[in-house]
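Quick one, tokens below:
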């Protein structure tokens, strides 16, 4: 009798496990079966929001389900990131963010999440070269003249940063060291007020994503003297790279899609495939026109890229002693 009861319990356990496995598999195969929330941890209108919304629209088209963007700014991106870290690992709450997602926690005394342990890398969407801009009244038209001017006015030249630990901030600190120059780094709450002061002459220079400076560049309100990509950009062919004067200099803001930790492998692959398909559509041309370099690849490629970038960024953060304010 005891053996019969144990055997029946065993059969129930096996049936339950099979049912659970079938349910998970069916869920993954049918994903997405409802609307997906994409949290962008910054206000509307910035480069991250612009690219994120363009991608969300394409993912909606590719999957047949709505990918709804929810802006959740605050805490330099930490509030939105924390919301995703604590969400269910079912693929219905995702994070679209920029490289500040990995660098900001490096500057905090404590972070509510671990970038590596609490998230699943899904896809690297693209890299955004930065533009080195100066006030147009300055006698600076290229990086060589910028370095000469800074050396002639040590500690007096000023560069804006749109946000702490951003790609622009790290790039600004890297240029200071690579060019062996010194200038004052002035923090702003966003790129818009930084551009206004750059145009007005209160600030001498600003390194920001190409997308952000494009309208000011085309209108002649600021002077773009270089881009931080390895090669010149098709969208700005007459603008040289920093590396043409400072060999080896290369820096990007980059954008990616993450889910919470333990996201099912099938869901991760489904999302990755949808992102790569979106990057092969007309979105490719639209982003390229704005200076972006698209980076399709596997989730493993993205995880590897993130790890390498974090090592490099941590070195800059430590050397420059960048701390969140």
């Amino acid at each position: 009798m005891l053996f019969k009861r144990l055997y029946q319990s065993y059969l129930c356990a096996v049936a339950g496990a099979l049912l659970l496995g079938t349910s998970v598999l069916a869920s993954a195969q049918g994903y997405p079966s409802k609307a997906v929330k994409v949290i962008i941890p910054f206000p509307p209108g910035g480069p991250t929001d612009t690219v994120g919304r363009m991608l969300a629209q394409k993912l909606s088209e590719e999957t047949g389900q709505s990918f709804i963007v929810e802006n959740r700014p605050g805490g330099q991106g930490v509030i939105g990131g924390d919301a995703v870290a604590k969400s269910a690992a079912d693929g219905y709450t995702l994070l679209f963010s920029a490289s500040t997602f990995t660098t900001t926690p490096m500057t905090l005394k404590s972070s509510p999440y671990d970038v590596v342990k609490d998230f699943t890398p899904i896809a690297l969407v693209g890299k955004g070269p930065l533009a080195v801009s100066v006030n147009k009244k300055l006698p600076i038209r290229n990086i060589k003249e910028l370095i000469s001017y800074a050396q002639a006015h040590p500690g007096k030249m000023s560069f804006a940063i749109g946000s702490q630990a951003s790609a622009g901030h790290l790039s600004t600190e890297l240029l200071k060291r690579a060019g062996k120059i010194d200038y004052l780094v002035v923090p702003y709450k966003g790129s818009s007020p930084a551009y206004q002061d750059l145009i007005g002459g209160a600030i001498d220079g600003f390194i920001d994503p190409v997308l952000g400076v494009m309208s000011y560049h085309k209108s002649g309100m600021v002077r773009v003297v270089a881009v931080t990509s390895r090669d010149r950009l098709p969208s700005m062919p007459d603008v040289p790279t920093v590396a043409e004067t400072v060999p080896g200099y290369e820096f990007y803001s980059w954008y990616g899609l993450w889910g919470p930790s333990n996201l099912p492998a099938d869901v991760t692959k489904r999302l990755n495939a949808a992102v790569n398909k979106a990057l092969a559509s007309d979105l490719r041309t639209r982003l390229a026109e704005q200076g972006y370099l698209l980076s399709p690849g596997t989730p493993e490629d993205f995880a590897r890229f993130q790890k390498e970038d974090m090592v490099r960024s941590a070195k800059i953060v430590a050397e420059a002693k960048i701390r969140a304010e």
